[in-house]
Amino acid sequence: MSTREDAVTSSFYSEGTTNINESYNFDEEVGPNEFQLENIPVDTLDKSPIVQEPPSLLKPVILCLIISFTGFIFGWDIGTIGGIINMQIFKKSFGNKINPETSERYFDPTLSGLIIGIYNIGAGIGGLTLGKLGDYRGRKMALGIAMCIHLLGLFTELVEDYSWIQFFIGRLLTGIAIGTTAVIVPMYLCENSPLKIRGAMVVLYQLMITLGILTGNISNFICHNIYNDSEDNRAWQVPILLNVFWDSIVFIGLFFIPESAIYLGKLCFDMDGAQKSFAKMNGVAETDRLSMEFINDIKLSAEIEKEENNETPKLKFEFIFGKPKLGYRLLIGILIMTFQQLSGINYFFYYGTTIFKNVGFEDSYLTAIILSLVNFVSTFGGIYLVEQIGRRTCYLLGCLSLNIFMILFASIGNFAINEPYVGVGLIFIVCLYIFFFAITLGPVSFVLVSELFPSRVKAESIAICSFFNWIMNFLVSLVMPLILSRVGFLCGYIFSGFLTIGFIFSWQCVPETKGLTEKEIDDIYQDVKQETH
After folding, report:
1. Residue 72 maps to which CATH number?
2. Which intervals of the chain form a coiled coil (predicted)?
3. What number of other Cβ atoms are within 10 A of residue 479's Cβ?
């Protein structure tokens, strides 16, 4: 940013700054040579009374929970689809192969993987395309459209055509919807959460994902035991049908949550609406000092960007070529999400059933509940940790701790699997791994990516980062069965290598964004020459 903006921002946060509306008319057209905000005397800005009240955060937290519920819907799919696709009645209804000896239908392994994985492909497409709707029609409108697409996908899955193609298309549609929400929701939470607990509120999205996984697994377990999953279609239909209820919660919630204050102020120039939204989401009055400082900052930023746009035409592909170093920041965001997937978390969820069977747990549905319960409970620690030790430190801790447990798991599993009590030890290591993932890489990756970019390119940048996350998720899930069949427990060393690279990358490249404003994060990436002028 220019030194002019630095001067404006520094004076803005000086003592006595309250309202600049009487000192500068923001409705007037300003020419490149007329914009002299840095010359406005600070003592002329205090023109309106300001009320300082202690914030009440209960209502804002509830509103953040409502918007985060889309994460629950995503987690519900993760928690149910694995069990559904292995139910005998589901194979009987949709299987593309017939066993000549038993005449039973089943899925070709490749098709089974594609039915699960197409969800990730759809999510990547949705994030890249519909995620941009948040800038054109608002965050709330984008979420409403995404939920409509999700409902369409659910009904496509439930239509009794009993064709795997029909179910495949339904999975694609629900993936597109969830990919859109995966861009919009973290962005909304970053923009509109109470400033004091912004990081914790973004982590709520990850917490709701883990809660969805846990309850989805419990749903499968209950339906598996209540209905005969060899004959009764309700065994797989009920978990999918419950999604309609979850979607309705989000639809109702959209009537109560305010539009993003950043969207209203910076993209729509609706300063009154932005002030009301900010006040509501921070638990303060519209006349509170915090609200007034926020809206004044928005006005100043809007005018500075307006002047800069008059001097320099808007850059095409600004999220790559824009300043300060937006392309470099995009690369950092992509790698943050990539290393989250290459940490091996899906490896444990895939191989966990086999490990538990070695110590007598034959019920795969119960196995999934145990792992997802550890994941959910541990995520509460992530809400605390991400605010206490910071984003960068949390990411570094995750790479280091997960690397240690991955090496232990691979070494013990490969060289001592036949020793007594080794199975119990491996289960303990798996649970420790999931615990540390849930308090570090799981939540902090979303927080870092949501805070890394300025609002003018946030939608495109988060969408691209999310796209790489979905694609890596798909690729890891697709190649994992082949790798496991070839190298078994040695697969852990591959993930250990990625975690080592991830640690070096985060040590060298990932900034600390805790408590920083958008401008302060921009300042991190200013060239040394720019900072000295």
Report:
1. 1.20.1250.20
2. none
3. 11
Using an 8 Å Cβ cutoff, are 510 and 448 in contact? yes
Same domain for 121 and 229, yes or no, is: yes
Kindly report the number of other CB atoms within 10 A of residue 32's CB atom. 10
Phi, psi of 97 (to 5 degrees): -125, 155
Query: Distance between CA 397 and CA 210 in Å, rounded?
Result: 20
**Tokens coding 107:** 């899925």
Number of domains in the chain: 2
* Cα separation, 361 vs 372, whole angstroms: 15
Query: What 3-state DSSP class applies to 38?
Result: helix
Residue 181 structural domain = 58-257
Alpha-carbon torsion (143, 148, 149, 150), positive or negative: positive
For the entire predicted model, the pTM comes to: 0.76
* Cα dihedral 192/195/198/199 (nearest 10): 150
Q: Is the dihedral of CA 304, 307, 309, 313 positive or negative?
A: negative
Q: Is residue 9 part of a domain?
A: no
Q: What is the mean pLDDT of each run of 10 residues along the chain (533 residues)?
A: 38 35 38 39 42 66 90 91 83 79 75 83 88 81 94 90 84 94 86 78 85 92 81 87 94 89 76 81 76 78 67 70 86 94 82 62 76 90 83 94 94 72 80 93 87 83 88 82 76 93 93 81 68 35
